[in-house]
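Record passed on underneath.
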Amino acid sequence: MYRALLLALTAAATWPVIPPAVVHPWAPPATPYGPGHRGVDLAAPPGTPVRAAAAGRVTFAGQVAGQGVLTITLPGRASPPLRTTYEPVRALVTEGTEVAVGQVVATTADTPSHCADGCLHWGLLRGDVYVNPLLLLHRAAPSRLLPVAGVAEPG
């Protein structure tokens, strides 16, 4: 699945908050409803600007269980499409808005957090399956052939 996901990622991506500091890593659950951490938490005190990690269209900007949530659906070859999620936030964009990579789309909300100094929960979904959002940032570089010294050419 991860290989197909990486092949579907063709656009540039960036960290949603600057400077980036992961305070809680990705920890996928063993079962769909099991315990785990379905994203990464990035250090971000209330009021921190939140940038779109990748270009796309805002498909949700509203409240879920009392928390502000923003979802951006990414264009590309992935089927179902990839979606990035950000919470808790105060959205600065509305549903249907096209956003560019790095565009400020929200600020972190001043709500109780499981992080002592506040944080942004950044998620990535493919359909209903959560995947590690750091995959957006760690695409493999294209392969290059290098000259080989000291090896006889086939004859």
